[in-house]
Amino acid sequence: MACQTVAKKGGRNQTEKMNAAFVPLTMGDVRERLAANMRRLRAARGISQERLALEAGVDRTMLSKIERRISNPSMETLLKLANRLGVDPVALLEPGPLVSLPAGSNYRMTSSHPIAVHEPGQDKSA
Questions:
Q1: pLDDT top residue among 86 and 18
Q2: How far is residue 19's CA from residue 3's CA, in Å, rounded to a whole number?
């Protein structure tokens, strides 16, 4: 990642990291990632919207709106959903599909690194 020094008022300098490959996301992009990941994780676990909402302590209509890309969840709601689905909240916003890994693997692959995915009912220390 290249660094560029930018002069600021008052004679101070600030170093900014510039990444030529970076493409800014829109809110629509983020909503789509979240919605797709929520649907994928629910389907993989065989959980209905109603059941997920009930077990996570989230209103079912809110969950429906999130999956239809109509509403943005609060951080608290995102955390509740991630906890019930057994994933790090960051995993809900990662690009790309969930991938199949060998039995016993418990990771969600992203473009640059795996994210641990805890399956509900599994011992986290295993």
A1: 86
A2: 8
